[in-house]
């Protein structure tokens, strides 16, 4: 669905199959990338009016999550259910395996959502954050290994493995349905969980609760990190003050 009036009204867009995930990039305003339930990736370069399959080399399996690298609009990441994290350096024309699924609590876990976050502590400045059924994890773009989000210098923590845990992490044991990084303020993150919408202002180390309800999706404005929209209890709500107050958008 698409709204051109801030969510007051909606129109259906043609899609090649059921869509599980969407991604956009501020430097490519007409481009939408869709992860499909039937497997594969579809690209639209005209705001969703027409679509093109770009799934060459991708394994079979649902595409549970997609994201575009911060600052690199041609670099696309896709989470293939039952397989791992795949990347394309040429806007989906070819794909290669970037990373296996994270090993959490003695089991390899599927990635439910992805966000590319431009932080100085990443190799080259970029981290891939991922939500799983067990919580939050991340990997730098060197793809050395998945790690918990920890305070202090993240690359030192990656090497030593003995950094202290976060004092205020996301609730343990809850699946993370969606993650959003604010492009204009990369350390600001939002997460959608069964317990509601959460935010972090320091790259995911300390989290605070913004809204109650079952949250299944969250998005943030590319230029205003305090303007967010979330799917809460089956409806859409927006906040223009970083989650202090919320108002309902028209039903789809």
Sequence-ordered SSE layout with sheet pairings:
Layout: E1 19-25, E2 28-36, E3 41-44, E4 52-53, E5 63-68, E6 76-80, E7 84-88, E8 96-100, E9 103-104, E10 107-108, E11 113-118, E12 126-132, E13 135-140, H1 154-160, E14 178-181, E15 189-193, E16 196-200, E17 207-211, E18 215-220, E19 228-232, E20 235-239, E21 247-248
Antiparallel strand pairs: 1-2, 2-3, 3-4, 5-6, 6-7, 7-8, 9-10, 11-12, 12-13, 14-15, 15-16, 16-17, 18-19, 19-20, 20-21
Question: If you had to describe this structure to a student in words, what would you say it looks like?
Answer:
- The protein has 252 residues and is mainly beta.
- The protein has a single domain, classed as 7 Propeller (Methylamine Dehydrogenase, Chain H), CATH 2.130.10.
- Helix content is 3%, strand content 41%.
- The strands form six sheets. Strands 1-2-3-4 form a four-stranded antiparallel beta sheet, with no helix packed on it.
- The mean pLDDT is 90.
- One of its GO terms (biological process) is xyloglucan metabolic process.
Compact summary:
With 252 residues, the chain is mostly beta strands. It has a single domain (19-248), classed as YVTN repeat-like/Quinoprotein amine dehydrogenase (Methylamine Dehydrogenase, Chain H), CATH 2.130.10.
